[in-house]
Amino acid sequence: MANVAYLQGHLDSAEKLFKAAMSFMLAGGTPEDDNAVIEMSLKLATIYAEQNKAELAEHGFRFCVESLEAKLEKHKEQMEDERTEEQEVLRKDTHLLLGLCLDSRARYRASLLQLDRARQDYRKALDICRTEQGDTHPQTLVLMSDLATILDLQGRHDDALVLIQQAVDVSRSTDHEDHHLLLGNLAGILLHTGRLEDSVRFYQEALGLAKQAGDQAAVQQIQEGLEEVKKRRGQERNKQEEEAAKLP
């Protein structure tokens, strides 16, 4: 019920239900660092973030990340060849959950324009996803795109372009379902570097795929990007005309 309330946007109800479920589990002897408890703690942190309760959100994210990191350190103390199959599954699940927590915290920090901290979290989440899921996994490509966005916002356009181009190339070869979103991000970064013709080309490709996918939110975002390109072209044309008028 807590998850249903959360998905429906009933945050106050979801908060109460998650807290009640956690209290029940902890009272029954479930450890605080159990993955199920951490998952609910992450949901609570996300709820606090959406409610603009910054202190509670940051505390919640920190609890999740630090608890999982400590848990993984215990796994490291055990030699790999001594682990049972069940223990290895738990290690991988715990590592991926840490990646999810870092991803969620990165998005929260990005929303607050804490770009350095967001970049660090995205980088760690990406490293985890690559390690456990591989370079071509859909989530790996999404994280590459998200990290590229942060680099772009920080003015590191060349680094952002390298990363998003890699993601787009893999996405194209693996028929990624969100390929249009990656193309749109590439187009936006190209726009910020002044490569308007390349930007339009990728925006147009992204627009066609977004329409095929029925992704109206992406269609609107891409159309806004094309309008920005049009605006930039007009500004460049006006600048050229002004400079030409100054010539003898």
Outline the biggest β-sheet: none
CATH topology of the largest domain: Serine Threonine Protein Phosphatase 5, Tetratricopeptide repeat
Question: Roughly what is the average pLDDT, rounded to an integer?
Answer: 90
Q: Counting H and I runs of at least 4 residues, what is the number of helices?
A: 11
Q: What's the CATH class label of the largest domain?
A: Mainly Alpha
Question: Could you give the distance between the termini?
Answer: 75 Å
Radius of gyration: 22 Å
Shape: elongated
Question: What is the CATH architecture assignment of the largest domain?
Answer: Alpha Horseshoe
Beta-strand content estimate: under 5%
Question: Structural class from helices and strands?
Answer: mainly alpha
Q: Compute the number of structural domains.
A: 2
What's the β-strand tally?
A: 0
What would a concise description of this structure say?
InterPro entries: TPR-like_helical_dom_sf (IPR011990), TPR_rpt (IPR019734), TTC19 (IPR040395). This protein is mostly helical and 248 residues long.
Written description of the protein model:
This protein has helices spanning 2-7, 11-27, 35-50, 54-76, 85-111, 115-133, 138-153, 157-174, 179-192, 196-213, 216-246. It has 248 residues and is mainly alpha-helical. It has two domains: 1-133, Tetratricopeptide repeat domain (Serine Threonine Protein Phosphatase 5, Tetratricopeptide repeat, Alpha Horseshoe); 135-248, Tetratricopeptide repeat domain (Serine Threonine Protein Phosphatase 5, Tetratricopeptide repeat, Alpha Horseshoe). It is elongated. The model has no long low-confidence stretch (mean pLDDT 90). It is found in: Mitochondrion. InterPro entries: TPR-like_helical_dom_sf, TPR_rpt, TTC19. It comes from Cyprinodon variegatus.
